[in-house]
C-alpha cells in the first residue's frame, strides 16, 4: 500500500531524517548563535569604558562573520571530516557541496547542513571568548588575521581530537559533553596567552576600567545564560530525555554558582555585587558544560558550589599573589572564568559521570563492553570498578594537558607570525582615544568614561586599579 503523495517521503524529508530532532538542532544552534550575536556583542560593548564600546563589540561581530566563512571553506572538514590528514585533524575541504549538505551527518538523524551550522556557532563563540582577554588594546587588523589563523590551526585540532568520532582522545573515551575542553579551556588558555603577547592596556585603563552601562551588560549576560539551553541541550543531536536533563542541570549549576559567588562577595567585601554575581553565573555555566547530560542533579548542584568558589578564590585572592598572573593583562579574566572553570568542570566530570547517563548520551547498548569506559570515579569506587574510574579521571586530565599545551604553542606561534606583519597592539594615540581614533565612530554622543564610578566602594573592590580581573564576565 502506497502513501498518499502528500505524505510520501521526499528528497526534502528522507526516511533517515527525524523532523523533530532536526527542528530542535536548528533551534539549539540559533540559541548558541544568539549568545554571540547579540549576546556577547552587547556584553562586551557595555562592560568596557565608553571609549572602547564600539571596538569591543565590533571584535565580536567580526569574529562571528569571519569564522562562518572559514568554517564552510575548510574548518568543518578539518574538525569533523571522515578523511583524516593526521590523528588530530581531518582533511581540509569545502562544506558547501549540495550533495554533501543534504546527506546524513556523522551523528544524529540530521542533514550535514544542520550539523555544519550547529558546529559553526560553537567555533564562533570560542573566538569571541578569546577576544574578551584582548579588549581595549589589540590592533583590529591583527585581530582580523588572528581569527582565521587560530580557527584553522588550534580550534580544529581540539575539536577533531575530542569531538570527532575518529579523534584520538574521543576514541579513548574522554567526556566533553558540550565544550568544557574544546571551547572554554581552549579560549581561556588562548586568551591568556594572546594577552601576554599583545601586551597590556594603557596604564590609566588598567587602573580604572568601569563599565559604561551595567544594565546593558546584564542584558548581554542574560542572553548568554538563556542561550546555554541550546549550548548544552543540543549536543546529544537528538530531542531526547538526555537533552532535557542537560538543560536543567545547566541552569541549576549556573544558579547555584551565582548564589555562591554572591555570598562570598557579601562575606568578604560586604557588597552584593551584580558584576560578581554575573561572574558566578558564567563560571557555573562553564563548569557544567563538559558534564551537563551525564551527571545527576545533585552533582550539578555540587559543581555549582565549587564553580562559584574555586574560580572566585583564584580571581579574587590567588591572582593578586602570583607574580606572573599579575603581569598579564587579561581584560575580562577569561583565564579564571574559562580556563580555571573549564578545567574544574572536566575534572568533576571525570568524578561524577554516571555510567547509565553516559550510555544514553553515547547511544551504547548495555550488552556492549564499550560503554564501561565511560564511568566517573565516584561510581567506579562505589560499584567496585575502581580501575575504570581512575582510567576515566586519567583521560580527563590528559585532555586538560593536551588542550593547554596545544593552545600555548599554537597561539604563541600565531601571535609571533602576525607581529611580523602588523603590530599586535594599538598605537599610543589609539589607546588614548579609543573608538574615534580606530573606527571614526563612538558609541555615545554624551557621557564620560565612568568618572561617577571612580570613588565607589564597589569599584575599589572589583579592581578599578591594576588589572581589573575581578570584573570579568566571560
From TrEMBL:
Compartments where found: Cell membrane
PROSITE patterns from the UniProt entry: AMMONIUM_TRANSP (PS01219)
Regions crossing the membrane: 23-45, 57-76, 116-135, 142-163, 183-202, 214-231, 243-264, 285-313, 333-353, 397-422
Membrane topology field: Multi-pass membrane protein
Transmembrane helix is among the record's keywords: yes
GO cellular component labels: plasma membrane
Molecular-function annotations in GO: ammonium channel activity
InterPro entries xrefs: Ammonium/urea_transptr (IPR029020), Ammonium_transpt (IPR001905), Ammonium_transpt_CS (IPR018047), NH4_transpt_AmtB-like_dom (IPR024041), RhesusRHD (IPR002229)
Assigned keywords, A-Z: Ammonia transport, Membrane, Transmembrane, Transmembrane helix, Transport
UniProt superkingdom: Eukaryota
Assigned protein family: Belongs to the ammonia transporter channel (TC 1.A.11.2) family.
Official protein name in the record: Ammonium transporter
Organism of origin: Daucus carota subsp. sativus (Carrot)
Amino acid at each position: 500500500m502506497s502513501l498518499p503523495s502528500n505524505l510520501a517521503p521526499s528528497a526534502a524529508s528522507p526516511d533517515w531524517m527525524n523532523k523533530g530532532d532536526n527542528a530542535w538542532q536548528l533551534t539549539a544552534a540559533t540559541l548558541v548563535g544568539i549568545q554571540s550575536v547579540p549576546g556577547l556583542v552587547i556584553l562586551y560593548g557595555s562592560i568596557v569604558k565608553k571609549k572602547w564600546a564600539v571596538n569591543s563589540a565590533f571584535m565580536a561581530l567580526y569574529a562571528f562573520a569571519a569564522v562562518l566563512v572559514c568554517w564552510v571553506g575548510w574548518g568543518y572538514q578539518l574538525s569533523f571530516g571522515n578523511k583524516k590528514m593526521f590523528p588530530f585533524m581531518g582533511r581540509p575541504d569545502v562544506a558547501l557541496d549540495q550533495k554533501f549538505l543534504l546527506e546524513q551527518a556523522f551523528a544524529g538523524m540530521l542533514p550535514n547542513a544542520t550539523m555544519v551550522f550547529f558546529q559553526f556557532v560553537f567555533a564562533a563563540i570560542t573566538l569571541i571568548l578569546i577576544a574578551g582577554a584582548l579588549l581595549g588594546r589589540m590592533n583590529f587588523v591583527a585581530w582580523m588575521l588572528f581569527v582565521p589563523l587560530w580557527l584553522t590551526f588550534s580550534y580544529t585540532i581540539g575539536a577533531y581530537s575530542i569531538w570527532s568520532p575518529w579523534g584520538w582522545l574521543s576514541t579513548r573515551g574522554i567526556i566533553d559533553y558540550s565544550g568544557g575542553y574544546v571551547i572554554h579551556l581552549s579560549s581561556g588558555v588562548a586568551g591568556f596567552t594572546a594577552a601576554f603577547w599583545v601586551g597590556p592596556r594603557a596604564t590609566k585603563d588598567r587602573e580604572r576600567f568601569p563599565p559604561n552601562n551595567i544594565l546593558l551588560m546584564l542584558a548581554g549576560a542574560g542572553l548568554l545564560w538563556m542561550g546555554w539551553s541550546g549550548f548544552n541541550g543540543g549536543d546529544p543531536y537528538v530531542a531526547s530525555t538526555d537533552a532535557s536533563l542537560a538543560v536543567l542541570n545547566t541552569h541549576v549549576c549556573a544558579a547555584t554558582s551565582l548564589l555562591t559567588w554572591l555570598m562570598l562577595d557579601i562575606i568578604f567585601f560586604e557588597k552584593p555585587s551584580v558584576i560578581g554575581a554575573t561572574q558566578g553565573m558564567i563560571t557555573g555555566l562553564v563548569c557544567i558544560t563538559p558534564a551537563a547530560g551525564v551527571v545527576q542533579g545533585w552533582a550539578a548542584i555540587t559543581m555549582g558550589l565549587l564553580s562559584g568558589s574555586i574560580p572566585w578564590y583564584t580571581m579574587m585572592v590567588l591572582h593578586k599573589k602570583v607574580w606572573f598572573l599579575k603581569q598579564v593583562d587579561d581584560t575580562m579574566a577569561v583565564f579564571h572564568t574559562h580556563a580555571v572553570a573549564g578545567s574544574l568542570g572536566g575534572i568533576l566530570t571525570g568524578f561524577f559521570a554516571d555510567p547509565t547517563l553516559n550510555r544514553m548520551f553515547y547511544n551504547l547498548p548495555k550488552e556492549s563492553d564499550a560503554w564501561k569506559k565511560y564511568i566517573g570515579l565516584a561510581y567506579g569506587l562505589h560499584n567496585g570498578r575502581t580501575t575504570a574510574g581512575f582510567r576515566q579521571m586519567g583521560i580527563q586530565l590528559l585532555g586538560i594537558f593536551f588542550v593547554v599545551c596545544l593552545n600555548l604553542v599554537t597561539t604563541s606561534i600565531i601571535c609571533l607570525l602576525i607581529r611580523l606583519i602588523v603590530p599586535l597592539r594599538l598605537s599610543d594615540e589609539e589607546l588614548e582615544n579609543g573608538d574615534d581614533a580606530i573606527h571614526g565612530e563612538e558609541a555615545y554622543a554624551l557621557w564620560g568614561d565612568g568618572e561617577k564610578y571612580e570613588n565607589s566602594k564597589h569599584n575599589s573592590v572589583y579592581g578599578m586599579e591594576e588589572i581589573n580581573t575581578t570584573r570579568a564576565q566571560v
